[in-house]
Design brief:
sequence-specific DNA binding, single chain, 10 helices, Homeodomain-like_sf, 2 domains, transcription regulation, DNA-binding transcription factor activity, alpha+beta, 5-stranded antiparallel beta sheet, disordered N terminus, 3-stranded mixed beta sheet
Length: 300
């Protein structure tokens, strides 16, 4: 369970979940990214144990050279082997293993380090995609080479002036992320090529509005689509219905708040769009098989 006492430099969210900011002071030249070898002495902050659940406001990509490694991301335990990548996005609740078994390369980056067009092209906020990726031999070789080139550029602070150094890093990072995004999109269950951005707009709208809006028709109207068009787009992209997609996002946030905050059940329900605590309990039990009280008790 997370330490519910906020510490300096960590933002308290929801009366308990701490969101750790990007450690700019540890980055070479203060740029919005950091890359290096994994190890026991590398963390976001020395005074916060990373084997406790926490959030971060930046992206983390781990390329493992040894395994297996177990890592929890949003209540799912993932086991990574050598050659696997783990992509953790801002806001996701996660926890490192207690054992110091992390070996490989770790890349961290602030979302604002890259221009918006690159953010969209690389799917930095595709929370619907799986965090654990299993590249094939050719993909792994290309990703590893791109990451190693990025590391060399990151550590070379003498060849170029700071502004050009940062510009080169953005280009190298974009090249790596485009390869990574292609792997992530092709790894999604039932992934299909999308001919338009209908699902992207819906996904972004749900991320902004799930706490108050659970209506498929309301999202369709707001986006200017018919309900049928939205159903087709979401099913093509995810294999599920728009309602199922919304409900999964609501359940995830409810789990986060139940597990990592001390909010009363009624306030948790209200935070995800259920003013009535009884309705929230019914909804949560329908989707998880447990009451909110039972789910919280299992984790304490």
């Amino acid at each position: 369970m997370a330490d519910t006492t906020p510490q300096e430099g960590a933002m308290a969210v929801g009366d308990g979940i701490r969101t750790l900011p990007f450690p700019t002071e540890l980055a070479v030249g203060g740029v919005g990214m950091r890359i290096g070898r994994m190890g026991a002495d590398r963390g976001w902050r020395a005074d916060i144990p990373l084997d406790r659940v926490h959030r971060i406001d930046f992206h983390v990509v781990l390329l493992f050279t040894e395994g297996p490694v177990r890592h929890m991301v949003d209540f799912t335990e993932y086991e990574a082997a050598a050659g696997d990548l783990l992509w953790i996005r801002p806001g996701q609740v996660h926890r490192f293993s207690r054992e110091c078994v992390y070996r490989g390369t770790v890349l961290t980056m602030q979302p604002g380090f890259l221009p918006r067009a690159t953010v969209e092209a690389t799917g930095l906020y595709r929370y619907d995609l799986p965090p654990l990726l299993h590249p094939g031999p050719a993909q792994l070789e290309a990703l590893g080479a791109a990451l190693e080139q990025l590391r060399r550029e990151y550590e070379d602070t003498t060849t170029l002036p700071p502004s050009l150094h940062a510009a080169v890093l953005r280009h190298e990072l974009t090249a790596f992320l485009l390869r990574l995004a292609h792997l992530a999109a092709s790894s999604a269950p039932g992934s299909r090529q999308q001919s338009d951005n209908t699902f992207t707009l819906f996904r972004d709208a749900v991320e902004q509005g799930f706490a108050t809006n659970h209506s498929v028709s309301a999202y369709a109207d707001a986006l200017g689509y018919s309900r049928r068009t939205l159903v087709r787009a979401v099913r093509a992209a995810t294999g599920e219905t728009p309602k199922g997609f919304i409900d999964k996002r609501v359940v995830l946030e409810a789990k986060r708040l139940l597990a990592h905050t001390e909010l009363p059940i009624g306030r948790v329900g209200a935070a995800v769009g259920f003013p009535d605590a009884a309705n929230f309990s019914k909804f949560f039990q329908l989707h998880t098989g447990r009451t909110p009280v039972a789910f919280r008790a299992e984790l304490r």
